[in-house]
From TrEMBL, chain A:
PANTHER family: HYPOTHETICAL CYTOSOLIC PROTEIN (PTHR35024), POLYMER-FORMING CYTOSKELETAL PROTEIN (PTHR35024:SF4). Belongs to the bactofilin family. This is Cytoplasmic protein.
Automatic annotation (TrEMBL), chain B:
InterPro entries: DUF4004. It holds the Pfam family DUF4004. This is DUF4004 domain-containing protein.
């Protein structure tokens, strides 16, 4: 795709555009794009709305952006609030603000330091989740690395290495602890190497399973190794 | 056409693969979403697969992944039509179509000697059916017409081509995402051909 010779679309203040192909798209202030855009770099600093799909090399959302379509970009950074009604495809996804996706997320590497809400499945090679996430479908990643700061939910989790750790809380954290549940809630966890803390799950299946403190697990099925912390509740564990 | 199902656990045992591999293949779209069948069991929800299809697919993946990257494999299994173009002579040289069938096809289709994927599929289906002797040339024309009329559908969905005869009169139809077909007893089912499988066969011949 040749975007080198395309013009830029810059909206400062209140403005609207009908979309198209651009080199650089910047929405500062209150910008609206009424249909699909294809560009090299997309940036939204104010409150922007795109009523179509976005195809870009890099997309950076620092303000408040809402997308009625799908985002397809190599690099997506969300530092503000992004609401995507359909799917999000990104090679690298970095969220330090809040991102909500109505459809599914497909990525190679997801780095989460904020809040991520996904309606359907979330797929990545590497998923690093800090703080909070809610996934309506399956969280499928080769490496799932979760550090719990708040309440996290996923319908199912599957992958090769799955690690869930409780964040070592600060002093203020312990003061407010009764108000926040720091736990991961899920129906299924399936993987080769599983290490859990503060997790509530109905079924955990894996080769090497290590259940840490504050877990409530219905059934653990393992093939090689199994260990359980004394502060964990496991309904049943069987070697298969 | 109700299929035997296999649970995820049994599948992993039987195929000797790990959860990690299964989920990786799923991510790469090597295993289609429709094959993940959720059913509730006494332990909660379990995932099942159509046994024959999944074992065949896993076997294919395992034998081919030594030579090809997972992404290349994904392209091969995906029903999306590649933007591939080939010349008439190439197709004959690569044993996708015999010269006789190619001539028959070109008599009925005058849109040139360059073949894009939908046309390769058409000619390949004809080749398969005519060479096996299951249909005659007139029926070949009929099949061709069905395939041409429904080309946009074939691109996206998993289609099945069904040819049947009754009292010597033949007809054919295209099924899209169907579970089963039943005929009345006087009807003879000549052939039922999955176009998805045909596409995979073509792709594996091209690679």
């Amino acid at each position: 795709m040749e975007l080198k010779n395309m013009g830029d679309l810059i909206i400062n203040g209140v403005g609207a555009s009908n979309g198209g192909k651009f080199q650089l798209v910047t929405l500062n202030g209150h910008g609206t794009v009424n249909s699909d855009i294809e560009c090299s770099d997309f940036e939204c600093n104010g409150s922007g709305t795109v009523k179509g799909d976005v195809k870009a090399n890099t997309a950076k959302i620092s303000g408040n952006a809402s997308f009625k379509g799908t985002i397809d970009s190599q690099q997506v950074t969300v530092e503000g609030t992004a609401k995507i009604e359909k799917n999000l495809y990104a090679k690298h996804l970095y969220v330090s603000g809040k991102a909500s996706v109505g459809g599914k997320v497909k990525s190679e590497e997801i780095n989460l330091h904020g809040i991520l809400a996904v309606g359907e499945d979330c797929e990545a090679e590497i998923f690093k989740g800090k703080y909070r996430f809610t996934i309506g479908g399956l969280l499928n990643a080769d490496q799932v690395d979760v550090e719990l700061y708040g309440e996290c939910k996923a319908k199912e989790i599957g992958g090769q290495t799955i690690t869930v750790k409780q964040h070592k809380g600060s002093f203020i954290g312990t003061l407010f602890k009764p108000f926040f549940k720091t736990q991961l809630e899920t129906d299924f966890i399936e993987g080769d190497i599983i290490e859990l803390e503060n997790t509530i799950a109905k079924v955990v299946r894996g080769n090497q399973v290590k259940i840490g403190p504050n877990c409530h697990i219905g059934v653990v099925e393992y093939t090689e190794e199994f260990s359980q912390d004394k502060n964990a509740v496991v309904g049943e564990s069987k070697k298969v | 056409m109700s299929e035997e199902l296999i649970s995820k656990k049994d599948l992993l045992d039987l195929a000797g693969i790990s959860y990690g591999q299964l989920y990786r293949w799923k991510r790469k779209d090597l295993i289609p979403e429709e094959w993940f069948i959720r059913k509730s069991t006494f332990t909660g929800q379990e995932t099942f697969f159509p046994k024959e299809k999944i074992l065949e697919r896993i076997d294919k993946i395992q034998t081919m992944k030594e030579n090809l990257s997972l992404d290349a494999l994904a392209d091969m299994f995906s029903p999306n039509i590649s933007d591939l173009q080939m010349e008439k002579d190439d197709l004959i040289k690569r044993n996708i179509v015999s010269a006789a069938v190619m001539n028959f096809y070109l008599e009925n289709d005058k849109s040139g000697l360059t073949f894009h994927f939908p046309r390769i599929l058409e000619v390949y289906v004809l080749e398969k059916l005519l060479q096996s002797g299951e249909i005659n040339l007139d029926e070949g024309k009929m099949v061709l017409q069905v395939l041409k009329d429904n080309a946009p559908l074939i691109k996206q969905k998993s289609c099945e081509l069904v040819i049947f005869r009754k009292l010597g009169v033949s007809s054919c139809l295209l099924l899209i995402n169907t579970e089963a077909v039943h005929f009345e007893s006087g009807t003879k089912l000549v052939v039922s051909l999955s176009l998805m499988t045909c596409m995979e066969e073509i792709k594996s011949k091209l690679l």
